[in-house]
Amino acid sequence: MTKTAQNKTKTKALPKGKKSKLEEWLDNPKRVLVAGAIVGVGGFLTYKLVRLIWSSIRSNATSKQADDDPNVRAAMTIRIAMNPSGISWMKSFDTTDNDAIFNAARTITDLDAVIKAYRKLYDSDMMTDLQGELSAEEYQKFLTMVTTNPDKKSGAAPIAWAQKNQMIVAKKEVTLRKSPDASYHGGFWEDKKEDNIISMISPGSFIGYATGKQQFDSKNNVKFIQAGYIVKKDGLPDQYKQYAGKSSTFWVSSSADYVDIFSKYNLMFDRYPTTKLAVSIKKPLDYYDPPKEDPNKKKTGVSGLPVKAVISKRQTKILGEKMLPIATVEPQTLLGAYLGGLNTGQKKYVKFLTASGTERWADAANVQILE
Asked: Is 8 a member of any domain?
């Protein structure tokens, strides 16, 4: 065998995850200490020196992966942000770049891999170092950004502040924004170029449906969710016809202090009755997308909202099973799902199913059916 072939044999890469004999030997300090008993104190110093050299070799190998491995890049970015001088013993004295740490956090999809790369590079625990450099609030921000990343790959599933197509209602006056940045508040002293506000929504108003997108504004410590809706294309009251088929998206705080989030219409209607008209007009953004199982079938929306809805045209009496009045509702109130009609020869009635699952009747002349 030639020397070149021998060298190739010596430098052959080990299978992934398998340790070299030197690593296995170094991982058992007792063996080194036994050798130290023979060669004296020099044995222990030799062990420390070899450990240091081996750690340096591994660090250099990991550094070379930075161009190809996003986890290595994130680990290096975080370390540089904590230790810009590059001198390890100066880390306690260096100024920490929090923005760089948070920017790196946004890119992390596999926290375990980043921690592993950091340990290989710097022989230190990244999370412990972060706790030493950041305040408790800043450290929590870092964790929030990592654990809520929708592209998260390892560990538990990413935390979602609102599931796609859940319904969002304003608890108190809330701001709708163009982007997930709460820096601008609409003050007269603020630069209008930075205006990010679309509108202010009053308490009890239906905001829209969650799109499934979310982002954490670390600068202002606000958890944002994206919401939106599409206005029905047909069957609209006259005042809404100009908006037919138009869609809107915006960002809103997901804080429970500002919004309520619902998965079922009846729960929302019980707490916020005025949202009934809004959801009869504003639909999820994918409302007109054909279902995958049947491309010719029309989609009906979230949680089974009926295709046909009964809405009062004027002040209307609601009739019970015995066709006697049990309540009166105001104009433009969503009554429920259309079930059918009844013609007595003298008068026509419409039967509908309320959000609570109760069958009711109304004079057909006083209601309209939206499809």
From this structure: no
How far is the CA of 272 from the CAs of 152, 167, 172, in angstroms? 35, 12, 12
The CATH number of residue 64's host domain is 1.10.220.10
User: Per the structure block, which two tokens stand in for 6?
Assistant: 């021998």
CA 19 to each of CA 13, 22, 46, 66: distance values in angstroms, whole numbers, following the listed order: 11, 8, 21, 22
Q: What is the mean pLDDT of residues 26-43?
A: 48
Whether 275 and 340 share a structural domain = no
Q: Is residue 11 part of a domain?
A: no
Write out pLDDT tens, residues 5-20: 444 444 445 555 555 5
Name the residue type at position 159. Answer: I
DSSP category for residue 240: G
**What digits encode the pLDDT tens for the residues 134-162?**
888 888 888 888 888 877 776 666 778 88
More confident residue, 294 or 281: 281
Measured torsion, CA atoms of residues 21, 22, 24, 25, in degrees rounded to the nearest 10: 110
155 conformational bin, left if phi > 0, alpha if psi -120 to 50, beta if neither: left
Least confident window among 25-34, 116-125, 227-236, 290-299: 25-34
Which domain range does residue 250 map to?
167-283
